[in-house]
Design the sequence.
């Protein structure tokens, strides 16, 4: 996403916790919440982000209302957990390419306490940071779950249309189905 040339590099703390329960089957990880998501204290809250329309299409349902509680219920009902790779970092606006000094979230406790059997990352930076920061920690904790990188649903990824994103995200439903009810 383009940033204003005078935008400052800010130290940002994630600010809200993961969405999950003991019956979660997959974990979907972004990099760091956008300013709109941090403001709303919930995931994928920028009005142009296509995450929620994609997930709704996958499950054949209407897009959940823009309120965090409706989206939380949707995620839990469909057995996908949400969190981000990064707990804190230096970042300019919502620009993943500007991320510096990333500190990862500790994913092990929720993976151990749930039925999560697959991790998906949304966007190239989330995948890169997961491989570098989270995967080694999980391996040292004796946790071996596969990770599949997915394209970003951000408006910055304008080259991918909604049908293309929905097709790419079909693997999420397949992973949920492999571990129980979709």
Sequence:
């Amino acid at each position: 996403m383009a940033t204003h040339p005078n935008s400052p590099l800010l130290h940002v703390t994630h600010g809200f916790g993961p969405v999950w329960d003991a019956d979660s089957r997959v974990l979907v990880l972004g990099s760091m919440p956008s300013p709109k998501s941090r403001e709303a204290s919930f995931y994928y809250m920028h009005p142009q982000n296509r995450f929620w329309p994609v997930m709704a299409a996958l499950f054949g349902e209407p897009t959940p209302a823009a309120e965090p509680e409706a989206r939380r219920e949707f995620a839990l009902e469909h057995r996908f957990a949400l969190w981000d790779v990064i707990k804190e970092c230096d970042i300019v606006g919502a620009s993943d390419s500007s991320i510096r000094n990333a500190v990862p979230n500790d994913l092990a406790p929720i993976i151990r306490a749930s039925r999560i059997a697959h991790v998906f990352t949304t966007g190239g930076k989330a995948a890169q940071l997961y491989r570098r920061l989270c995967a080694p920690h999980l391996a040292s904790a004796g946790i071996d779950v596969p990770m599949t990188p997915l394209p970003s649903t951000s408006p910055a990824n304008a080259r991918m249309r909604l049908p293309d994103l929905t097709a790419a995200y079909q693997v999420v439903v397949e992973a949920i189905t492999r571990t129980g009810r979709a």
Summary: The domain at 10-178 is CATH 3.40.470.10 (Uracil-DNA Glycosylase, subunit E).
